[in-house]
Amino acid sequence: MSITIRRRPYIVGVMGGADAPAPLLEEAFLLGDGIARRGHVLLTGGGPGIMRAASEGAWRAGGLVIAVLPNDRLWPLDGYPNEYVDIPIYTGLSDARNVINAKTPHLIVILPGGAGTLSELALALKAGTPVVTLRRDPPEFAPPGACVRAETVAEVLAVMDDRLPPLGAVLTDGF
After folding, report:
1. Mean pLDDT for the chain?
2. The domain that contains 21 carries what CATH number?
3. Which pLDDT does position 173 carry in this prediction?
4. What is the total count of domains within the chain?
5. Which pLDDT does position 165 carry in this prediction?
6. Is position 56 within any domain?
7. What's the per-residue H, E or C state across the chain?
8. Which pTM was predicted?
9. Containing domain of residue 40, as a range?
């Protein structure tokens, strides 16, 4: 007799700037879509730009979207959370929330952004979170193999598929 064991889904972070050009927003949307279609949970910073585009892609594909927000519930921040966030986590931590964004995912994808995105990249590497960058060289301080550069969304998704094993497991001995 075999039993299929339900495993918790992987959490994949997508980090990038609040201001981004349209082609980059389209790529973020496609990343969110690809993450959701693989059964993974998307984690973003929950705001505009890259965060919103990735959230929309995942949400429209039927995925679950978690956002680690800089504000708290009593002090709203315009654009946080965006309308595609299913689970908003109000931290009240401002930029300190980047530690949560970097350490929570099983894998993090870094798109172009500002200082906040760079801090998430550095914190993820320090925490041992696997990092995939989209058209961005790994920083010189990245340990070998910890940060993979991809040129396209398809390459990012292929690296993700390679690093995150399939969701199901089948046990046949004694169950």
Report:
1. 92
2. 3.40.50.450
3. 44
4. 1
5. 79
6. yes
7. CCEEECCCCCEEEEECCCCCCHHHHHHHHHHHHHHHHCCCEEEECCCCCHHHHHHHHHHHCCCCEEEEECCCCCCCECCECCCCCCEEEECCCHHHHHHHHHHCCCEEEECCCCHHHHHHHHHHHHHCCCEEEECCCCCCCCCCCCEEEECCHHHHHHHHHHHCCCCCEEECCCC
8. 0.91
9. 15-163
